[in-house]
Structure formats: C-alpha cells, structure tokens
C-alpha cells in the first residue's frame, strides 16, 4: 500500500530531540503536540507508564487529523521516563528537584524507558513497544550539578539529563540504543513499521541544499 500512497508521519511530540533524530535518519515528520496532561496517568511500572502516555499522545493527535486520499498518514507518539532506585522519574518540577536527583544519581545507574505507539490512520492498526537502555551516570561534583541545573536543560527532559546536549559529559556510558535515551529508538521504529507491513525506507526523503525542497526518495 505504501507503493500507492505517499507516507506522511506525524510526530505527536514537542521534543526537538525526537524530531532531530528522525531528520538525521532521513525522515521529515510533521509535528503536532498532543496536549496530554502527563500528570493524570499513574502506574507502578515505568514501562507501563511510558507506553500508556505514548499511546494517549498518539490517539489525541490522531483524533485531530482527517484522512486524505492523497497520503497515508501515520501518527507516532513517544514518552520517556527514568527508573531509578525503585522510583519513576519524569521531568523534574523545579531546579531544586533536579538538583536533588543529580545528587542521588551521580556515580550510579538507572534505566531509561521510552514508549512508542505508531498508529496507521488508514485502518486504525496500531504497533507499540517500549525500548529500555541502562544509563551509567558520572560521579559529578556539586559545582557541575549546580551549573548544569542552572542552564535549565534538566528541567525539560525525563530523568533530568540528556546525552545529546549539555548533559552528555555527565553520562559515562549506556547499555542499549542511544536513541532510547534521546526519546526515540530508530531500530524499534523500524520494527513497528514492519508490524504495519511498511518499511522505514518508505519514509526517507531527500532534502535539497538549504532545506528548500523535500521530495520522496525512490
């Protein structure tokens, strides 16, 4: 079916990192923020929580779209949480909380879970799964914590850290797909597309110099 209609991927996320990951992989998504209130969803398991939030985000965006005869629309919802010391950590509420987290996390490790929910608007089929990656944090100093938190970056991301931004030097190593920590696992997306009888190469685009033109490959 992908040979008949061009594919359109709608990313149900405001995360610039997720969009950049797709763009770096040759995929130019449309972005539509879901507006889901993440605080309303509660779960005892990090894997269940991030998957439910990913599902709700995808469904919320899907309900605002209209089918078209010219494109086959896919909606991708994602959500990430950090499992650490038996707790589920999303975005910290304020700088004080981000500081407390880093004082606990430094020199230790946690598991970053990213839920993915992909829905095909044509027939309503859904493919979903969770990618999980172990993150080993550096034993950073009080000054490094204060300076990092002062940038504001930890307040905008699950677990209060990144690996693709200012927080990169504070992560010693990871066990698993780096994309999971960024919030979108490309290998997992490839498998979810296959579950819907699609290929990730169907989403590849060619961008002209200056990003002035985007045209499908192949």
TrEMBL record:
Main location: cytoplasm
Family matches, as InterPro entries: ITPase-like_fam, Maf-like
Keyword Hydrolase in record: yes
Pfam family, any one: Maf
GO MF annotations, alphabetized: nucleoside triphosphate diphosphatase activity
GO biological process: nucleotide metabolic process
Gene Ontology terms: cellular component: cytoplasm
Compartments (UniProt record): Cytoplasm
EC number, as in UniProt: 3.6.1.9
CC cofactor: a divalent metal cation
Enzymatic class: hydrolase
Catalytic activity: a ribonucleoside 5'-triphosphate + H2O = a ribonucleoside 5'-phosphate + diphosphate + H(+); a 2'-deoxyribonucleoside 5'-triphosphate + H2O = a 2'-deoxyribonucleoside 5'-phosphate + diphosphate + H(+)
Active site positions, chain numbering: 79
Domain of life assignment: Bacteria
Keywords, comma-separated and alphabetical: Cytoplasm, Hydrolase, Nucleotide metabolism
Family: Belongs to the Maf family.
NCBIfam families named in the record: maf
Function: Nucleoside triphosphate pyrophosphatase. May have a dual role in cell division arrest and in preventing the incorporation of modified nucleotides into cellular nucleic acids.
Name the record gives this protein: Nucleoside triphosphate pyrophosphatase
